[in-house]
Amino acid sequence: MSQSHLQQSFLSEFGESSEPIRYFQAPGRVNLIGEHIDYNGGYVLPAALEFGTTLAIRKREDNRIKFRSLNLPYEAELEVQDLGKAKTGEWIDYPVGVIVELCKLGVTLASGYELMFEGQIPNGAGLSSSASLEVVTAYALLSMEEQELSRVDIAVLSQKAENQYVGVNSGIMDQFAVANGATDHAILLMCGTLEHRLVPFVTGSYKLVIGNTNKRRGLVDSKYNERRTECDQALEFIKTKLPDLNYLADLSPEEFSAYGSDLKNQILQNRARHVVEENARVLLSVEALSRNDLHLFGQYMNESHDSLRDLYEVSCRELDVMVDEARRIPGTLGSRMTGAGFGGCTVSLVHEDDVARFIEQVGTAYEQRTGLRGEFYVCGVGNGVHELKEDN
Ligand code: GLA
């Protein structure tokens, strides 16, 4: 939907006022490589998408905050002083959680607001619609209140909102990418320290194709927490040999060769191996990208998926089928699941001449083999959260 459509919906919902309406946008994200590494303190390489969540926002003269979404029917009106008193289990918990975290940092809202959100990211597809919703709320309210906070701090507070208010135990990667993304760049983020740098991601005649399996991510929360616990257990064990180790991803491949096999629990050993090797693959990928070696990068994408499937066990049949079909297309350099797993999306790097064939053939075969209809988005890398100045 265009900005002028959002404006029309906003005005028909909230009416005219002397206060201006301002518009903000936060992207979704795709993780290129470095999966299930953020909460293990290692390197990830996500990128912001060109689509995300748009927020139209306007000050009110009273103390009421009105939340609307063009995607979901639930709506709410709260007094500023009542915010955060009760979770609803609805989408407004994300923006409310952000306001609660802003308050903790001393950013209190001087007035009420009208907020209307319009999301372009399919919910539950693993493209970070929730991080996008959180970060756009934080950034917009800080701008409206004329308060400064760095993009890193915005990411951290948005993650806290999700962990503490919404109650989902996610890592920092999604909010970080949504806050800090830049066109034609991926973000190399060291999650243990939050050191980061932009890495040019210019793929020439190759396109990123995101494939949505449309498989509901049923077990994702419980399995996600299970993986986190397994990693904590593996870390605890390895710390008996290397007491100074802070994170599992701090373990070098050499250290893992030396101590990993002492981990007698095969499952824990597999989880740790994935973390160590995936972390190393991120740095190798950055090196390959800096040499413009997309073929090698594609190979690392493939290795990443295979490790998530076999060692970390967070893939599922639908993701595996889509990846398998993607790799049959001659112009595909690499294909992997992206995000938490158990459904959601794949990301593939495909030659532009083969993209139409890719969508046709992978889509047909995927439907035949799974009974589900996949969806495909050919996308470039967009900017992190920003204000929209003109209708576009
Ligand atoms: C989800 C979480 C992220 C990250 C990924 C897996 O997207 O929100 O923090 O852990 O899964 O890489």
Question: Which structural traits does this protein have?
Answer:
11 helices; alpha+beta; 4-stranded antiparallel β-sheet; 392 residues; 12 strands; Ribosomal Protein S5, domain 2; binds alpha-D-galactopyranose
Describe the structure.
By secondary structure, the protein is an alpha+beta fold. It has a domain at 3-199 and 382-388: Ribosomal Protein S5, domain 2, CATH 3.30.230.10. It has 11 helices and 12 strands. Strands 1, 2, 3, 4, 5, 6, 7 and 12 form an 8-stranded mixed beta sheet that branches. Helix 3 (129-144) packs across helix 4 (151-166). The termini are close together.
**Which CATH first-tier class of the domain at 3-199 and 382-388 would you pick?**
Alpha Beta
Query: Largest sheet, if any?
Result: 8 strands, mixed
The count of DSSP E runs of length 2 or more, i.e. the number of strands, is 12
Cα shape: globular
Mean pLDDT: 95
